[in-house]
Design a protein that fits this description.
Layout: H1 2-23, H2 26-31, H3 50-53, E1 71-74, E2 77-80, E3 93-95, E4 100-101, H4 104-113, E5 119-122, E6 132-136, E7 142-148, E8 156-157, H5 165-174, E9 181-183, E10 203-205, E11 217-221, E12 231-234, E13 246-248, E14 254-256, E15 283-286, E16 290-293, E17 332-334, H6 339-348, E18 372-373, E19 382-387, E20 390-399, E21 402-405, E22 419-422, E23 435-444, E24 458-462, E25 493-498, E26 512-519, E27 535-539, E28 555-559, E29 565-573, E30 584-588, H7 593-600, H8 602-605
Antiparallel strand pairs: 1-2, 3-4, 3-5, 6-7, 7-8, 7-12, 9-12, 10-11, 11-17, 13-14, 15-16, 18-26, 19-20, 19-22, 20-21, 21-24, 22-23, 23-24, 25-26, 25-28, 26-27, 27-30, 28-29, 29-30
C-alpha cells in the first residue's frame, strides 16, 4: 500500500512539472517569427487574425491605412476635412452638381461631407456633357459595362484586359450598389447587338479610392482584331453566397474565404486585407498586417504604415497607373486626366516633419545588445528631468517646447522646481553640448491612476527663449509620435535608454542604452495588472537588458524600415529589474496620439494623416 502511495505521489509530481514546463510562455514569446508569405497549400482561414477582425477595420481606419488628402485621422478613423483645410493651389475641377471647385481636394471634401456631389471632369464645367456608366444586360445589377465620357457623343464599352475587381467595385459603387462588385468573370450574351464594336473599346485604370468611374483614367489604343469586353456583377442582398467557406466583410458583403489576404480589395471596404498574418498570391505583406497589390511596391508612394513597400527599390520607380502597360505612347490616346496622380500631388503639398532622423555619422552604426554607454548624438530626443536631488527621471523631446514623460515622475504644482537637461550624457560632469531649460507648465493625463500606473503619461512645456513659447534646441532632434498601434509588432527590436540604477541598485551617472524586444500578451507575466491598450512590454529572454529605477519617463524607441525613430513607449513600471519573466512595462504612446495632439497641436507631431 505504501508503495502505491509513493508511486502516485511521484506521478503527480511528474505531471505537475510537465504542466509548469508547458505553461512557460517566455521562450515562445521571444523567439517566434512572423510568417510574411504563405504557400498555396496553407489553410486560408489561418491567414486571418481573428482578434483583429473583431475591431472591424476598413479603408477608413487610419490605424491600418493612410487617410486621403481630403480626410484627417481622428481617434483611429478617417473623417472629412472642411474644404478650406485643403491646399489652395491646383487645377480647377467640375462636379456633377454643375459647380466648379478650386482643387480636386476641395471637391472630394465636399463629397465627403455631402454624399452625392461627385467628380465630373478636370477643368471648368462644360456647357453640355455628362459622364454616365450603365450595364448592358438583362438585369440592372449585371452586364457589360458602357460609359459615356464628358467630351464624347456616344457610349463605349470597356476592354476586359484592363478590367479588375478594383475597377468593378468603383463601377458598382457609381451605379448605387454600396457593397461593390461580386465578380467580373461572368460572360454576357451581347454579340447579337449590331452596334457593338469590340475593337473600339476603352481601357480604364482605377486606384480604388474613387467613388465614380469618371475619376479613373481612360485611354484608347489602336488595336487589331476584336477584344473581350468588361462585364460586372454587382453585389446585391439576394446574391448567392460563395460555395466554399465565406468571409464576411465589415460592410455586410460575403466573399469566398480564399479571397481574403490576397492583396485584392474584394470587399470594397478593404476589410478583407487589413487583418492578415501573411499574404497569398501576387501581393505584398505589410508588417502592420495589411496585404497590398505587389504593383504598389516601389511605385513612389508609401502604402504600408511603416513604409517597407518603398525600401530596397532599385531602378526607376513607376506609378501604379502604368500597371496596364501602355505599349507605345504614340499609339495610345489618353482621354481623361489622371486624378490618382493629382491625389499624390496634393499629398506632397502637406507639411513634412523632420523628426526621428539623426544627423550624426555614428547614428547608423550597428548596435550591440547590452547596457552600453551612450555618446553625444546617439539619442538626441533623450532629456533628463532634474529636481533638487539630481536627474530623477528621463523624458523625450517631441518638438517645439514639449517634453513627453511619465505622470508619476512629476507634480503639476511643482513645475518651478524642475529643469530639463538636453544633450546630456553625464549628469555629474555635464558635457559642453548640455543645455538647461526651465519648465513653464506640466500636464498630467486626467485619468492617470497612481496605484495601477494606468495612463502613466504627462507633458512638460518648457518656457522657451528669447520669447516665451519659442524653443530652439539646436542639438536636440524630436522623436516621432506614432499614431497607430500597428506600426511595430511583438518581436520588433527597440532601444531603451536612461540614467536608471543597475541590478544591484547602484546609481548610474552616465546615459546608457540597450536593445530590447517588444513582447506580446504581457498579461502572462503581470496578471490583472497589465492593460493591453494602454501598456507595452519589452525586454530580453534572459532579462539582462531592462529599464530600472531612475529610467522612468524615458524613451523606448523603435525604428521603421526607413530609419525613422518613433517613441513607442515611456518607461513606466516593472518588477525585479533585469530578471527573466519580469519585463519592463511602458506606457504605449500610440494610444495617446490624440491626447498629445490636443495639447501640443496636431501639426507639431503629425507625420501622416493631417
Amino acid at each position: 500500500m505504501k508503495l502505491i502511495h509513493i508511486f502516485l505521489l511521484l506521478l503527480c509530481f511528474y505531471l505537475s512539472f510537465c504542466q509548469v514546463k508547458q505553461e512557460n510562455p517566455r521562450k515562445d514569446t521571444m523567439t517566434k517569427k512572423t510568417k510574411l508569405t504563405v504557400t498555396s497549400d496553407t489553410p486560408q482561414e489561418d491567414l486571418v487574425e481573428k482578434t483583429c477582425l473583431a475591431k472591424k477595420y476598413t479603408h477608413l481606419s487610419c490605424n491600418k491605412v493612410f487617410c486621403h488628402p481630403w480626410q484627417k485621422c481622428i481617434e483611429g478613423t478617417c473623417v472629412c476635412k472642411l474644404p478650406y483645410q485643403c491646399p489652395k493651389n491646383g487645377p480647377v475641377v467640375c462636379a456633377t452638381n454643375g459647380r466648379s471647385y478650386p482643387t480636386y481636394c476641395h471637391l472630394k471634401s465636399v463629397e465627403c461631407l455631402y454624399a452625392g456631389t461627385k467628380f465630373l471632369n478636370n477643368g471648368t464645367c462644360p456647357a453640355e456633357g455628362k459622364f454616365s456608366v450603365s450595364l448592358h444586360g438583362i438585369k440592372n445589377s449585371e452586364g457589360v459595362v458602357e460609359v459615356k465620357l464628358v467630351d464624347q457623343d456616344t457610349k463605349m464599352f470597356i476592354c476586359h484586359s484592363s478590367w479588375s475587381m478594383t475597377e468593378a467595385n468603383v463601377a458598382c459603387l457609381d451605379l448605387g450598389f454600396q457593397q461593390g462588385a461580386l465578380h467580373t468573370q461572368r460572360r454576357f450574351s451581347v454579340s447579337e447587338e449590331p452596334y457593338i464594336n469590340s475593337t473600339e473599346c476603352l481601357h480604364v485604370h482605377c486606384r480604388g479610392f474613387e467613388t465614380s468611374l469618371a475619376e479613373c483614367t481612360f485611354t484608347k489604343r489602336r488595336t487589331q482584331g476584336s477584344q473581350d469586353l468588361a462585364g460586372v456583377v454587382c453585389y446585391t442582398q439576394d446574391t448567392d453566397l460563395p460555395m466554399d467557406k465565406s468571409f464576411q466583410c465589415v460592410n455586410g458583403k460575403y466573399i469566398s474565404q480564399r479571397k481574403a489576404c490576397d492583396g485584392v480589395n474584394d470587399c470594397g471596404d478593404q476589410s478583407d486585407e487589413l487583418c492578415c498574418k501573411g499574404c497569398r498570391g501576387d501581393s505584398f505583406f505589410c508588417k502592420s498586417g495589411v496585404c497590398i497589390p505587389s504593383r504598389y511596391k516601389c511605385d513612389g508612394e508609401v502604402d504600408c504604415l511603416t513604409g517597407e513597400d518603398e525600401v530596397d527599390c532599385e531602378g526607376p520607380r513607376h506609378s501604379a497607373t502604368q500597371g496596364f502597360a501602355l505599349v507605345a505612347q504614340e499609339e495610345t490616346e489618353i482621354l481623361t486626366a489622371d486624378m490618382n496622380e493629382e491625389r499624390k500631388r496634393i499629398k506632397s503639398l502637406f507639411p513634412k516633419l523632420s523628426c526621428g532622423v539623426k544627423n550624426s555619422l555614428h547614428a547608423r552604426r550597428k548596435r550591440v545588445v547590452g547596457g552600453k554607454p551612450a555618446v553625444v548624438g546617439d539619442f538626441p530626443w533623450q532629456v533628463g528631468i532634474k529636481d533638487s536631488e539630481g536627474i530623477s527621471c528621463g523624458g523625450i523631446y517631441i518638438g517645439g517646447c514639449w517634453i513627453l514623460t511619465a505622470a508619476h515622475c512629476v507634480r503639476a504644482t511643482r513645475s518651478h522646481r524642475y529643469q530639463i537637461w538636453t544633450s546630456l550624457i553625464d549628469w555629474i560632469k555635464p558635457n559642453a553640448e548640455t543645455k538647461v531649460e526651465w519648465v513653464d507648465r506640466i500636464i498630467i493625463h486626467e485619468k492617470y491612476n497612481g496605484s495601477t500606473y494606468k495612463n502613466d503619461i504627462a507633458l512638460i512645456q518648457m518656457k522657451g527663449h528669447p520669447k516665451p513659447g519659442i524653443c530652439k534646441l539646436t542639438k536636440s532632434i524630436p522623436a516621432c509620435i506614432p499614431w497607430s498601434p500597428y506600426l511595430f509588432q511583438p518581436n520588433s527590436r527597440c532601444i531603451v535608454s536612461g540614467w536608471g540604477r543597475e541590478k544591484d541598485n547602484q546609481k548610474v551617472f552616465t546615459l546608457r542604452w540597450g536593445e530590447v524586444y517588444l513582447i506580446g500578451n504581457c498579461s502572462k507575466f503581470y496578471q490583472h495588472r497589465f492593460y493591453e491598450k494602454e501598456m507595452e512590454c519589452a525586454g530580453t529572454v534572459d532579462g539582462s537588458i531592462d529599464a530600472c529605477k531612475g529610467d522612468s519617463g524615458g524613451p523606448l524607441v523603435c525604428m521603421d524600415p526607413n530609419n525613422v525613430t518613433y517613441v513607442w513607449g515611456v518607461v513606466s513600471w516593472g518588477e525585479n529589474c533585469g530578471q527573466p519573466e519580469f519585463p519592463g512595462v511602458y506606457t504605449k504612446v500610440a494610444n495617446y496620439f490624440d491626447w498629445i495632439s490636443y495639447h501640443v497641436g496636431r501639426s507639431l507631431i503629425s507625420q501622416h494623416n493631417l
